[in-house]
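Quick one:
INPUT:
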């Protein structure tokens, strides 16, 4: 059942419309839990598209196993997706810095307020993100420390590789996840892949995890896999180390994504394609696992190259 969450007229007879698809049991009792699955806050984040498709397809083929209400929002920023733009086009505005929004505000704030209003009352929300076009990420959940006790039990069911629990950051105050978590809807922000791409392997992994979670909370009675046990950054006192470029040029990686690395190993080189010289020979500062790797080769001084999860893995 497709419903309109937000709609507004635009210039030149155009319209912006945010839609959701509600899947519910054939016979409702009135006591069903509701889970919301959202994606596409950033127009260049496409990894969630395959997951939405796959979840809807599997549920439609097995409606007898659905024991709750699933609301799927495949594109919260349809203008960005249509125009291959991360933010809201023309405004150059990051929608995920507009929450909880305001019905008295501009278009973005109004849309944000309607989205929050529509999701409130859900038992749980899963917020699917990709990385941007510059970085590749393994499937992971990120959460701030103050929400860890509430969210970790859910995150561990999502068939993930990694859960990154990190200190509070002020920038998260305006995200959808923060707005919902502070208003009584546990919301898990999932990150994976890279921008403007769909990695089917990651999509299948997270889709299986979502069904595991739905089964655990009594909303799915079909068979599920045994989910992976993720590495949790806060368990075992593992540090996340970030390595940034100290020169500008073309980055040529010497490591692979989600592979282990030793202190002193070569991460890669930043080369000068005009002079044929190496501008920076990048060396690993610690042992660990590369869970974020630069995907876009052009780098400037200060660009993030890798994130390394330290410790024995």
């Amino acid at each position: 059942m497709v419903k309109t969450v937000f709609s507004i007229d635009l210039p030149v007879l155009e319209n912006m419309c945010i839609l959701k698809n509600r899947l519910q049991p054939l016979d409702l009792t009135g006591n069903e839990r509701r889970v919301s699955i959202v994606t596409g806050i950033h127009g260049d984040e496409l990894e969630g598209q395959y997951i939405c498709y796959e979840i809807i397809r599997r549920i439609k083929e097995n409606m007898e196993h659905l024991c709750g209400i699933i609301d799927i929002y495949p594109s919260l920023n349809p203008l960005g997706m249509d125009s291959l733009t991360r933010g809201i086009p023309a405004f150059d505005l990051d929608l995920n810095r507009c929450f909880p929004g305001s019905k008295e505000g501009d278009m973005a704030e109004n849309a944000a307020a309607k989205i929050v209003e529509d999701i409130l009352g859900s038992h749980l929300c899963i917020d699917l993100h990709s990385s941007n076009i510059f970085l590749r990420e393994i499937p992971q959940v990120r959460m701030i420390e103050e929400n860890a006790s509430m969210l970790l039990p859910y995150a561990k069911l999502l068939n993930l590789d990694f859960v990154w629990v990190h200190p509070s950051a002020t920038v998260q105050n305006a995200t959808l996840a923060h707005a919902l978590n502070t208003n009584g809807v546990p919301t898990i922000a999932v990150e994976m892949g890279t921008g403007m791409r769909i990695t089917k392997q990651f999509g299948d992994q997270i889709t299986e995890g979502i069904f595991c979670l739905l089964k655990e909370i009594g909303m799915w009675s079909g068979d599920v896999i045994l989910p992976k046990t993720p590495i949790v950054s806060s368990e075992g006192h593992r540090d996340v180390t970030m390595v940034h470029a100290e020169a500008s040029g073309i980055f040529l990686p010497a490591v692979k994504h989600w592979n282990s690395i030793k202190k002193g190993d070569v991460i890669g080189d930043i080369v000068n394609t005009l002079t044929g010289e190496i501008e920076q020979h990048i060396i690993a500062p610690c042992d660990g696992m590369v869970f974020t790797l630069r995907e876009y080769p052009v780098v400037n001084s200060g660009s993030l190259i890798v994130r390394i999860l330290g410790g024995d893995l």
